[in-house]
What we know:
CATH class of the largest domain: Alpha Beta
Amino acid sequence: MTSPVLVAGAGPVGLTMAMALKRRGVDVRVVDRAAARTDKSKALVIWPRTLELLDIQGCSRPFIDAGLQAHGARILADDGTDLLMHVRFDTARSQYRFALMIPQSETERLLEEQLAKLGVTVERRVELISFTEEADGVSALLRHPDGRDETLQASWLAACDGAHSTVRHALALPFTGDTMPSDWVLADLQIDGELPRDEITICWTPDGVMVFFPIDATRLRVIADVGLAAADEAPAPTLREIQALIDHRGPKGLHAHDPFWISRFRINERKVKDYRHGRVFLCGDAAHVHSPAGGQGMNTGMQDAFNLAWKLAMVWHGAAGEALLESYSPERSAIGDQVLRAAGNMTKVALMRNPVLTELRSLAVGALGHLPALRQRFVDQLAEVDLHYHDSPLTESPRGAARHPAGGERAPDLLLSPAPTETPRLYDVLATGRFAVLSVSAPLMDLPQALRPIAAAVATEASAEYVGGHVYLVRPDGYVALSTGAADTGPILATLERIAQG
């Protein structure tokens, strides 16, 4: 390919897409009709799995340095004195055992800095007016700030242009789902009083839910449901109203002041059926929007980008056939369904009003919260290390496959042995944009020369994460495609050959 990939939208998802493509040597242009990146905190948390994927891109450290590490979450009932459940994120099955609290404005700034290092500048106040799919690309009409129109020939179009996506509307795609029948308020402000600054605090009361998220050393976010407003466009609440909600639902003795941002919103749960339409791909909020419960939205969108970018890069460079791109929609649509379901269920449980049901809710969570296995499941779900591609067209389970990690599951990072000088870790190999053929306490595979542009053979010793005597095919985005016994690696070679040939 010689034409660039056009990325529409320069929020976290579009910036992630552009960065991941450019790191793989793909020409890219990213446009956004906004004059500047957001100055609001908006999406507030980066979970461990997203940090792992940023690690593969070589840039997790700047985000960690700029954010605040939250190490747990607790659920309180009644007047904030009844502790129903307390979980610690240090049990997360990741090297990142925390929730990284970082305002979206900072996330976008850091991603733009990464792009700048790669020589890419976001084209601000440039609007995608229309596009037409052609046999070997997309013809896009761009309007510049001075009114000049440009026709761009792009190889593919990645729609990362948000919940009101121009691209999705142009394709006339149904965005099916519902709007929850409740209004919510949001306030980013300073709070004095006894409240953990390294944990998320959830308060369940008979009148509704209130959640406190730490942002930095002095600032927190408060969100609460307030019932359905009489007017569709109700004004933002005042600081006095926020304080009244805190007094009524939160722990006692908290004083809110110096608000940075106060807003009101409603929760939409919507999704397109297919994420790919020819040479156009939908990512992030352009493809799915859901409840903010669990803080999964931005993370899911960024992971859409990581999933698609390595596939586009292989095809763009001619190292893989276009059939590889057919896996994007089924993989990410299934994840979208999973996240929608989990976030929606969490919200519905929090919004219970029936006194009998709320009492049963508290009893159940209080009892189940003492079970280590269920606490671990809750942490894994929040950390997103339980997401998988079991049903992907790229996933196989041949006879003799290892039980863990199984095909489609996350591949933990590890040190290679012997460690190559330039790529001492598994994730360093994946950072090259290639598959890793990982021999675990088994002979190193001798890959055919024709497959070396898309795969690298490496080795390590058996551990709790990987079963000895097996060879794993690990995708560039850190998921296992399949594994085999060391004596029968034919399925791995067959999979790589199919990807290369398309």
